[in-house]
Design goal:
Strand order of the largest sheet: 3-2-1-4-5-6-7
CATH class: Alpha Beta
Shape: globular
Strand content: 15-25%
Bound molecules: NADP nicotinamide-adenine-dinucleotide phosphate
CATH architecture: 3-Layer(aba) Sandwich
Order of helices and strands: EHEHEHEHEHEHHE
CATH topology: Rossmann fold
């Protein structure tokens, strides 16, 4: 096991990609704080599954867009577990709007939940990383390289996540902290449940791996980035897309 007794915080750990990340970190021996917003039953069921598999986890509620809620949930996690070694900023929302329909609320909401949350969580959590350092893994999207019509603001909010990843890696490197991101393509979760089948088939056809992603495909890469094995990688956004995206 790669992460025995590491304290890991996973935002959006109640469902989808975050739930798979929480389970896989725990399977590697990490003690996992599963942060959710409102899906208490789902968060509890992730915690239960981890415990039944012999792991340690606990659920914590917070709106990651709210800086004071983030400070108080990090205080609760540190009061419970003593420190933080791994922070996974996975919580996010998708909302599609084409050019003429974009308004200030849309922009504010997507940037608050997808981008400002990463800043709030890092500012609250990093002071509790041990002197030896730690790992931050953020969740971006492959759309930052090639936004589809209707996804410009979502992609911009995630591009900002990738830029924060790169910038903060430089500022935190001397503390022994690496900061990286994963950039998934379409992945099978609640977020993509309503995607029209024609779109899904088009993604499958364009993906060399011949399918859309599963949460576990992303979670395995996050576990690697959370482990000592990724020590020489920082500031990067890794495409986790089955080969779909031609990045520039
Ligand atoms: N699925 C994809 O195709 C795909 C592709 C690329 C990138 N991503 C990114 O991957 C991440 C996970 O996506 P997913 O598909 O697993 O999403 P999902 O199934 O919709 O789950 C979203 C998770 O984020 C949490 N969350 C949302 N807003 C929050 C807030 N304000 N405060 C705290 N938690 C909040 C939710 O908590 P509750 O359960 O409490 O609501 C839930 O745990 C997101 O950042 C998404 O943008 C997804």
């Amino acid at each position: 096991m790669k992460l025995v007794n590491r304290i890991a915080v996973v935002t959006g750990g109640s469902r989808g990609i975050g739930a798979a990340i929480a389970r896989k970190l725990a399977a590697e021996g990490a003690i996992v704080a599963v942060v959710y917003q409102s899906g208490v039953d789902q968060a509890q069921s992730v915690v239960r599954a981890i415990r039944e598999a012999g792991g340690v986890a606990e659920a914590f509620a917070a709106d990651v867009a709210d800086a004071s809620a983030v400070r108080s949930v990090i205080a609760s996690i540190v009061a419970r577990f003593g420190r933080i070694d791994i922070l996974v900023n996975n919580a996010g929302i998708f909302e599609g709007r084409t050019f003429a329909d974009i308004d200030a609320d849309h922009v504010t909401r997507l940037f608050a939940v997808n981008m400002s949350s990463v800043l709030h969580m890092m500012q609250a959590a990093v002071p509790h990383f041990p002197p030896t350092g730690g790992r931050v893994v953020n969740v971006s999207t492959n759309l930052i390289y090639s936004p589809r019509p209707g996804t410009a603001i979502y992609a911009a909010s995630k591009a900002a996540v990738s830029v924060l990843t790169n910038g903060f890696a430089k500022e935190l490197g001397a503390r022994g902290i690496t900061v990286n991101a994963v950039a998934p393509s379409m992945t099978s979760t609640d977020m993509t449940a309503a995607t029209p089948d024609a779109r899904r088939q088009a993604v499958i056809a364009a993906t060399p791996a011949g399918r859309i992603g599963e949460p576990e495909d992303i979670a395995d890469v996050v576990v690697f980035l959370a482990s000592d094995e990724s020590r020489w990688i920082t500031g990067r956004t890794l495409l986790t897309d089955g080969g779909l995206t031609d990045s520039l």
